[in-house]
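Slide 14.
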Amino acid sequence: MKTPAPLALVLPWLLLPGTGVQATEYRQMDRTGSYIHFTSRQMGVPVDGEFRSFDASLAFNPEAPAQARGQLRIALSSIDTGLREANEEAVGAQWFDVKRHPEARFELRQIQPLGTGRFQVSGVMSIKGSSQPMAFGTLLKASGRQAVMEGSFVLKRLDFKVGEGLWGDVGVVANEVTVQFHLVLSP
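Slide 15: predicted structure.
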């Protein structure tokens, strides 16, 4: 099984208010430099995995971070737990139900500065027909040619009806899933 990359954020440039940088739309994602990893627990044992197919965009002005908008779309069928059987189970009706809900989506609604390149990101996560508001800390650095957003958050899978039926027992599969992301974006 894969071990997720460290949660620490290493970014190329830090933009602070007053640097004179204009609003930039980051619409292209560097797929080789970006990742989405997750860690869950099954019967107390960590299970690591990743999603191999996803896309992101970000409209961000360091002078007005509260007006930032963005979107992350994840092809749920691209799950890779390191085990073929687990991947096949995860795309089925009791888990992601990819035939009816092929994609997870995070709609960024606001970025609030916390200082020293740290931001509070707020938005709405939608998985399997359920949507939940989410807020989490991240580090964001940008230049005119590149932006990197990295962080982690804990998602409660049962809030999205992921792992129904026998899989709803949190003694077997924990409700909390830690998601780590590193997104490299360019205009």
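Speaker note: Residues 1-21 have pLDDT under 50 and may be disordered.
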